[in-house]
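Sample entry (682 residues):
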Amino acid sequence: MKLKLPIRTIKSRRLEMELNSRLPTLNQEAEIKAKNTIITKLEEEKRNFRTQLDALTQKNEKLTKQLEEITIKLEHMNIEKSIESKKVENFKQELKNEQEKVNHLEARLQQQVVQRERYEHEASGAEEKLEQFVSQMLRIFDTYAGEADGTRATWKDEVQLTRLISHAKDVVSENLKHRGRIQELSDKISQRDRQIAERNRTVDRLGEQLTKTAASDRETQNITHQLECSRENERGLESRVHKLTSDLMEAQVRIRELERQLSQATHEQQRAVDVRQELADKELTYFKTVMIFCFIKLCARLESRLSEVSSRWDSVKSMKHEMEQQIERTERENHNLRDRIRQMESEMANSLIIRDEQRADRDRFFFYLCKLATKARIDQKVASRMEMDELQEAIYTRMGQIASGEFTLLTDVQANADRLSGLNRRVKRLQDQLSSKEVQLGLWRDKAATLEAQLTEWGRIRENAEQERTNAERAIARERKTEVDNARLCDELTRLRAELLDLNDSKIRYIKVEDKLSELQKANEQLEDLRERQATKITELRDVIEKQQCELSDYKTRSVESRNKLTDELSSTRKTVEQLKRSERELYEFRALVGRLIGLDVEMLAVPNYDIINRLENFIANHQLTQLEKPHGLPARNVLSSPTVKTAHHLRGPDTHSCEYATGCGVAKARSKEGNQMSGCS
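Predicted structure, serialized as tokens:
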């Protein structure tokens, strides 16, 4: 019996040693398998993260391309805006020049109005002189019937006749001067019409430029909308990047914990595990460096582009402000132009009233001449068909005939047919003189020097003519006085015909001036229509600008809301990070407390988690053995704390079997703990 007991004790010790030697190997194998599964999961997560990073890089590249395209479009739009601003400035300068021209034209119009009033005053004076002359002639005509034959000698006085002829010549010269002035005024009116046409063209150009500016504003609105979309996409990408960085941080924390666990579990398989760890560390460091470098580049690019876009946005705002100021200035200028147009219309109305009054005066004067013609024994039908100047000349000639005693003009001319040969020569000579005078009047505006020379020649010709006339009168004597009178009358008739032609020309010019005035009225109406259209366009532009301002205010409010949301998310993430740090600190404290309870110094241990778990499993296994030995009547024994020193009593066959079962149960519990830890880590 004594020999059997030590044999059993030896067997039990061997069994305990084998069990203790098997327990750590089984635990290590289970831990290695669990850690291998964790490593595979981490590798899959790495692959997923890499695919996500590739997708994100592709999206970033697409977004960068879109941003580059948008920046190029913005540059083109800025260039177009600068060109349009230059065009607007040019148009402003043109407007200023046109306004100066308008002011100059207004000054000219005022001068012309003054000149017209002066000419009207002179015409009224001339009409008064004519009325006086006509009244004198009527008096002579009325008194002629009551006077005797002795008075006829007074009418044939040459001094009085020469005075009347000189007075008539002065009147003719004044009429020619007035005709030249009328032609100058017509030329000025034509120049004014041309200037008004040029002004209308510039107004059309300004309308086209306003339409172009509206189109450019619409394009800027589209670009701003695209910028908002790109910014929203950038925000989404930033949120994704933040999420991925948080996931990476969590993955890094997990990887560090697993690396520690792997370093604890790979004491026996150092070569294989070291190689894996080195490869994993290299990949992780490379991955981290690549990710950090990519994020730094992306952040720098985004910051630079955001700064550029903000600067461009500020420039666009300043351009809009300048355009608003330009619109206000154009409105003021349009208001001033409206006032000027109203003044011009009032002046036109006054000129029409004056013209109607002049027509009425002219009709009255013509009626008066018709009465005078009836008294001068001129047929009333013939007088009504004549024009004013013709009628005046006819009355004048008739009065001369009456004064000279010739009551029958046609019979005297037929009777004196034999005397017409000498008179015709004189008529031709005088006609030549008249034609040369008309040529002189035509060239009087352009050639002053030639005019002076011609005037001297005319003076000589007049002197020669007067000498010839005096010689002829002395030679012919009193018998041929009648012939001289007839020749003078013929000359006067030819002059009157020329003046009639001039009057016809002046009438035609007057009609043309009236047509031009009607055209000017139409042009003024068209200008008013254009002004109304410009006012409508300006109101539309204001509405567009107000809409843009509303959209900008909405965009600002959205940006403020998004910024507030981002600040709230950052504060929540900071709170979660602080909670995680607290939980980690509490876990470290709990580990230190458990190690102190077991009798271990955590700071001195190389792998504290692994040593604590092994110590706890040994305690649990020894406790189960004690619980199993009590019902079989086995004596209590002391279980040492160290796992290396172990003692045992004599055990029977079934007891040993039960001990093996107990150890298996402890191993199962340890495995369940490892499974729980793995599930918690995952």
